Amino acid sequence: MAASKSNIKILSTSLRGALHKANGLPCQDYCCYKTNKNKVVGIVSDGAGSARYAQTGARIVCRTLCDILINSNLKNIKKDVINAVEIARQKLLLHRQNKSKSSADLINFSATLVGFFYHNGRGMFFHIGDGAGLAFNAGNYDNLLISEPENGAFSCETYFYTMDDWQDCLRFTPFENVNRLMLMTDGVTGFVFSDDFYKIQRRFLIPIAEYLEREPRRTYAVKALNNTLNDVRAQRINADDKTLLWAKLQ
Prior knowledge:
The chain has a single domain (9-248), classed as PPM-type phosphatase domain (Phosphatase 2c, domain 1, 4-Layer Sandwich), CATH 3.60.40.10. It is 32% helix and 28% strand. It has 8 helices and 10 strands. It has helices spanning 18-22, 54-69, 77-94, 166-169, 186-192, 202-214, 218-229, 232-237; strands at residues 9-15, 29-36, 39-46, 113-119, 122-128, 132-137, 140-147, 171-176, 180-184, 242-248. Strands 1-10-9-6-7 form a 5-stranded antiparallel sheet. The chain is globular, with a radius of gyration of 17 Å. The relative contact order is 0.19.
């Protein structure tokens, strides 16, 4: 999936959490990306653990937005994100797992959404619910732009693109003059950020970022990333599914 005429490089992984393994459940996270020369779209989604078809909801929104937004531009990106999410919702209305074919049953597909669109040095995060986006320059971990998670009145409550009022929860954050991006689901954010999301956990994030910078072999890089996120200590701290996407823009 790497671009053939640019220096763009993207690595990503989604891992089933210890809790899902213990209960015989699938990974409900999903991640995808597309590149076209100097244009990149990346999406990660965390399916709600309480939703029966959460993995379907996560997969459909990621694939739909990637397919549509790779043909967008910064001038129209907000409008195109809204349109793409609406199309994803329409797919769920007609999905074979939605027996009633009604919007009331979209709750069974509940999933969050964190993504970015980038083209020629400028970009935009778009975000519904928890998870996080991170924009920075390689080696500079003191100046970070963060698309933060948004929770409800309770720490365990978040927002999903399947909600009727999803547009009220959709946030956009522009960025420019950066050359590295990260997206992550809620299973990873606790390792990357401090509790208030004003600082990063340097002992976790920096070694990962620096290793991905140095390792030219994709299979080795992804394997190391998997080993880190799937470590027994990491699973003990957070047993949720874990998805991380790293993008080198230049």
